Amino acid sequence: MNDRNHAVVQTLVSAKDVALGVVNCAGQTLTIMPGQVIGLLGKNGAGKTTLLDGLLGYTFLNAGEVTVFGHNPTELPAEVCSQIGFVAQQDDLMPWLTGSEMLAATRLFYKHWNYDLADRLVDRWSVPTWQKISEMSVGERQKLALVAAMAHEPQLLVLDEPAASLDPLARRALISELIDIVADGERSILLSSHIFSDIERVASHIWLLEKGSITYQGGLDELKESVVRLHLTRPLQVTASLALTTRHVIRTDISTGRETWIIRGWNEALAAECAAQITSPYQVEALGLEDAFVEISQ
């Protein structure tokens, strides 16, 4: 952990009844606690970027309330801004500057700047800091934006599709850095990404955004364990009703000799009901995060 004095807070971000654009989280409270890595998942158009903009004060809310380090995000004092790092889906780098000039300009806004970290990231990601930003590739610009957001070691790092333009080696290096960031249990990350393998490697919690509303917020492992494929041999033979299980079926696929139920909300009670009532062969298939997301989103 760095040697700066951090404000003592229990909750880094709190959002209640947020509504803006396509996002409508009425009746919901979202929180980011120290040490959490939250993966924000949702289909294109679900409102992920809109939600991030609302949480950080880049967009005024239509309804609801957000606090960031205890402050209204549209009125953050300088000392709070210095605790936040943000990389947008489309960078706001100044194209007429070189990479080195951009980093020099960025560090003027922060009391703390880890020169060794910045140099290490530039070297590890092969960022051509001598070039003008206008001459860099999209991936190089993204790497530079990440260095600018991470070098002041913020307590809260918010990343909107940070690896979309990175090559596999750079992505792996980014995830390694993110893991190091939260190793002390005090700094937090909110990460929006369509690269599910990256989310699985680093996230501790998931926010699932569907049609503008958060339909799941909780542990990553708990989400994966709650969505399964139940493969049943036809004809299905049962000794009694499967009423509890069938209430959680979100989709059914039928093929010759087999029927598959996609179940959202799988738990010990459903497993016990199936074990007690189904006498024909069946199999419960656990899913990875990407497969679980696909099944939920269909």
TrEMBL record:
Residues 9-236 form the ABC transporter domain. The keyword Repeat does not apply. One of its GO terms (molecular function) is ATP binding. Keywords: ATP-binding, Cell membrane, Membrane, Nucleotide-binding. Coiled coil: none annotated. It holds the Pfam family ABC_tran. The keyword Flavoprotein does not apply. It comes from the Bacteria. SMART domains: AAA. PANTHER family: ABC TRANSPORTER ATP-BINDING PROTEIN YTRB, SKFA PEPTIDE EXPORT ATP-BINDING PROTEIN SKFE. This is ABC transporter ATP-binding protein. It comes from Deefgea tanakiae.
